[in-house]
């Protein structure tokens, strides 16, 4: 599905955490686009080794950064993507848009990246239906599983998890207001009724909004047909002037890929949708504190569960405690047992204390993972927790990921690319706290046919 009139990748994305970045990688790869996810902007030598690409991504950690850190990180990203002459520059955010003026600010990202984008349109895509995230009249809604496991839809400021996020609680559902609080002053909104009027009417309405010189234009999303209409808008405007800056979850990639598929000159290469059973013991590190991850831990019956005390992992005796936990995990894995190491939630009941401890804990989890992989050769591993994933994977020393297979909506298994032969080729699952069913960790072990289960 290459663009034959374009020398390099036409689509570039930066994921503000690693788990979300792998979801975008999966959507692009499954659409037939040759895609690679890197951990830093590529130099000429790295680009030469990658071969022809339709899309390229950078897995970052901007959602945990201060404004100054974000500006520094994203300026380099914007410059690198602009140098590649991409048509769309996608700032990938969590589908719940959780962010704050001083932590992971989407406003800072827009102001920084738009300097590298020639197109006047900054498109914000407000929902991702396959993850049960919806935007209607500018307000964001998201599903959450109840105690009986059945999902209910909540306005995001009343969501049982995201409204109480320890770092970036979502206390505003109106995304225009949410972005305004982060310095994006003039946000125009295209509501879902415009899509039914047809492409010409939608383009005319967008053009009318652009005459108001907005800082961004927010698009409602309620179903996949809306993404297809938005995709045609993105493709049309990106062809006029590029790069075009788009902000949103993996739905941005879904939208743009749908437009490419409608005009593809060649058939997309079918992508695997079946994960085979693990060939050896599996290790999972769960640093997420979400209620859903807790249910997944309880359901992981095929694993030896080893609890990690966050206070001891970050306290004065952290070195000795970590060494003892690593030894216990490595011994069990050598014996052929699957191991699930998880941070205990009971130590994180105080939101302000957990906020301060989170960066330390994520780095401690990264050190544990690095030491376990140094002690035992493994073929398949999993990491649960957005912040934990970002820091842990960076600490391993790998340089990129490619798509292997889907595991669940929003959860992908990737192949690790690294200069180290011990790490190169490892199968890696990254998952955010809100993603996957209760049996996700069992699926990682047993294998999973995503398309077959999805169509049941």
UniProtKB/TrEMBL annotation:
Family matches, as InterPro entries: 4-carb_acid_sugar_kinase_N, 4-carb_acid_sugar_kinase_N_sf, NBD_C, NBD_C_sf
The keyword Nucleotide-binding is assigned to this record: yes
UniProt GO molecular function: ATP binding; kinase activity
Keyword flag Aminoacyl-tRNA synthetase: no
Keywords in alphabetical order: ATP-binding, Carbohydrate metabolism, Kinase, Nucleotide-binding, Transferase
Four-carbon acid sugar kinase nucleotide binding domain sequence ranges: 284-441
Positions of the Four-carbon acid sugar kinase N-terminal domain: 12-255
Enzyme Commission identifier(s): 2.7.1.-
Family assignment from sequence similarity: Belongs to the four-carbon acid sugar kinase family.
Name used for this protein in its record: 3-oxo-isoapionate kinase
């Amino acid at each position: 599905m290459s663009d034959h009139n374009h020398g390099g990748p036409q689509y570039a994305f930066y994921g503000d955490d690693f788990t979300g970045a792998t979801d975008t990688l999966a959507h692009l790869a499954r659409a037939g686009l040759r895609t690679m996810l890197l951990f830093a902007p590529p130099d000429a030598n790295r680009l030469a080794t990658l071969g022809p690409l339709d899309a390229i991504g950078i897995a970052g950690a901007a959602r945990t950064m201060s404004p100054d850190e974000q500006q520094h990180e994203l300026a380099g990203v914007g410059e690198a993507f602009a140098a590649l002459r991409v048509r769309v520059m996608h700032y990938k955010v969590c589908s719940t848009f959780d962010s704050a003026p001083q932590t992971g600010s989407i406003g800072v990202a827009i102001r920084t990246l738009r300097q590298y984008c020639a197109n006047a349109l900054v498109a914000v895509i407000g929902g991702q239906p396959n993850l049960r995230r919806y935007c209607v009249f500018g307000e964001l809604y998201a599903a959450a599983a109840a105690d009986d496991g059945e999902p209910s839809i909540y306005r995001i400021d009343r969501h049982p998890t995201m409204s109480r996020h320890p770092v970036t609680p979502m206390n505003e559902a109106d995304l225009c207001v949410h972005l305004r609080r982060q310095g994006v002053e003039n946000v125009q909104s295209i509501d879902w009724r415009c899509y039914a009027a047809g492409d010409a009417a939608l383009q005319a309405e967008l053009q009318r909004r652009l005459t108001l010189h907005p800082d961004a234009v927010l698009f409602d999303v309620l179903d996949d047909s809306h993404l297809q209409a938005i995709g045609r808008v993105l493709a049309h405007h990106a062809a006029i002037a590029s790069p075009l800056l788009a902000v949103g979850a993996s739905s941005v990639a879904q939208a743009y890929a749908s437009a490419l598929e409608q005009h593809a000159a060649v058939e997309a290469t079918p992508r695997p949708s079946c994960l085979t059973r693990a060939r050896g013991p599996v290790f999972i590190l769960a640093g997420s504190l979400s209620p859903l991850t807790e249910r997944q831990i309880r359901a992981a019956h095929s694993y030896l569960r080893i609890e990690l005390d966050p206070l001891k992992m970050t306290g004065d005796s952290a070195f000795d405690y970590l060494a003892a936990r690593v030894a216990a995990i490595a011994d069990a894995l050598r014996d052929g047992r699957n191991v699930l190491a998880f941070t205990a939630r009971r130590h994180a009941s105080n939101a302000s204390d957990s906020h301060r401890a989170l960066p330390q804990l994520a780095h401690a989890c990264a050190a544990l993972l690095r030491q376990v992989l140094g002690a035992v050769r493994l073929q398949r591993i999993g990491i649960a927790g957005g912040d934990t994933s970002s820091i842990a994977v960076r600490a391993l020393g790998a340089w990129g990921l490619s798509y292997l297979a889907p595991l669940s909506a929003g959860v992908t298994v990737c192949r690790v690319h690294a200069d180290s032969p011990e790490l190169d080729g490892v199968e890696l699952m990254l998952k955010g706290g809100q993603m996957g069913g209760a049996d996700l960790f069992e699926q990682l072990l047993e294998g999973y046919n995503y398309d077959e289960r999805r169509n049941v």
